[in-house]
Amino acid sequence: MKKSALQIARADYQPKLPLGLKGAVEVVEGEPTQSVDNQEEIKKLFPNTYGMPLVEFVTGKQKENKKMNVGVILSGGQAPGGHNVITGLFDTIKSLNPESKLYGFILGPGGLVDHNYMELTADIVNEYRNTGGFDMIGSGRTKLEKVEQFEKGYEIIKELGIQAIVIIGGDDSNTNACVLAEYYAAKNYGVQVIGCPKTIDGDLKNSQIETSFGFDTACKTYSELIGNIERDCNSARKYWHFIKVMGRSASHIALECALQTQPNICLISEEVEAKNMSLDDVVEYIASAVAQRAADGNFFGTVIIPEGLIEFIPAIKRLIAQLNDVLALPETKDMGRSELIDFAKSHLSDDNLAVFNSLPTSVARQLALDRDPHGNVQVSLIETEKLLSTMVAVKLEKWKKEGKYTGKFATQHHFFGYEGRCAAPSNFDADYCYALGASAAQLIANGKTGYMAIVKNTTAPASEWKAGGVPITMMMNMEKRNGEMKPVIRKALVELDGAPFKEFAKNRDEWARQTAFVYPGPIQYWGPAEVCDQTTRTLMLEQQ
User: Which of 127-131, 359-363, 370-374 has the lowest average pLDDT?
Assistant: First the structure.
């Protein structure tokens, strides 16, 4: 593999570890845990992995460790730092016992089911240290939820003498990890399953998981790009730039990028829902800011939009909920697209049908048709940035005829998604992910299953971080998916009473009218720690 000069230099970076993961490690167990909600239902579904204690690793006495073969799976969308989870896992199991082996299952959970794997040797692993992407073994979105899949996976686990599977993924992937751990525990197969918290969206977060890996790098990457656009915007002074950023189920990325770049407008989906705003309310909010800046002689600006905004508008959210129920009906299974839309419309309530018919045809069709493997509307395919800018233009034209607006309104559109998912990890993510991999290895070595590796106290220097594990069942509740109630990890939304949102809300009126852009520039790896090793604004505000 040919490498750039930066990659060669970056490969030499040695990730920093918490003191509790250096040398011999001892486990300190806390109190028994319970799920965040629906305790009786979750306990009934996971009798073998429910109620386990929190775990923390501290410096201990040297002990002899048996050889352990481990399988690793990258699941779902890519996030910067995934390779460092694998290198941290590899280095730790080898340090515990040089005879240990690590097997990577190719292209996600499907690799386990299809027995598609490779042994990850030092030569392979060393090629990917501190690199972005998931290309070491690839990723996939196969859901592990059926007994046939579990048994098929067990065949290759047995054949390779694998003791544990580490699943690196987001909330849905770690829900699957919990189900798999429970199944193997119930069967007494002696196979441990450990999860690692991955998602650039930042919605896999709770009292034990301070941040999911990849969020730091992705936000810095997007903020660099947004800053570049703001600089261009402030140079040409003739366009409004509508910028959609990733974040289907929560607005953490949009909020963090706003804190870093100070755009004129940033929409927060959770606030739109809390204020019961309609699509027209959102359009009027943007148009009012455009009109105010035009009155000041500024015919340019930037708008940040979370990709999942459309699902948070209450009227559309109610429509989607009913569509999900209708599309889960057995009679829809073999319907064509046009037939499916007609069927869905005939089963909608009057209010939901009115909302459906009010939407642009392309948006309405998207809401009524394709779902991802987890049953979610594929909101990234809805061009919300173009929808909003078009509707703002119509609103401004109306105001112009009424004498309420004078000026021009020209737009540019951007969607930042893939640009951030495989970026080279920041120092924070390189360190954080390496420590997560080391924690996963220690959970395995100490006989744990159904746990997610965690690293806390992450606004302190890395040596002061606290590593350990949290039972995955602790994060679960029951939610409706594809028409049925299922156990899932609860998503973390932007908290409107939290410090990050309050900081944003305190400044946004000034940013809306003034040109207060900040240009973060590219991620820097080398230089003063106060520049290179900073965490996200979100994390700093949450823990100050």
Answer: 370-374
Contact predicate 517/227, CB 8 Å: yes
Number of helical (H) and strand (E) elements in the chain, helices listed first: 22, 15
Q: Which residue matches tokens 């600089």?
A: 231
Instruction: Give the 3-state secondary structure of 444-513.
Output: HHCCCCCEEEEEECCCCCHHHCEEEEEEHHHHEEEEEECCEEEEEECCCCCCCCCHHHHHHHHHHHHHHH
Record the pTM: 0.93
Write the CB contacts of 469 (distance below 8 Å, at least 6 apart in sequence): 54, 55, 194, 439, 443, 448, 451, 452, 453, 454
Taking CA atoms, 343 is separated from 348, 360, 368, 406, in Å, by 9, 19, 10, 45
Catalytic member of 91, 172, 201, 216: 201
Q: What is the pLDDT of residues 251-268, one digit of tens each?
A: 999 999 999 999 999 999
Q: Is 201 a catalytic residue?
A: yes
Distance, in Å, from the CA atom of 475 to the CA atom of 543, rounded to the nearest integer, reads 20
Residues 6+ apart with CB under 8 A from 213: 79, 80, 81, 82, 85, 196, 197, 198, 429, 432, 433, 436
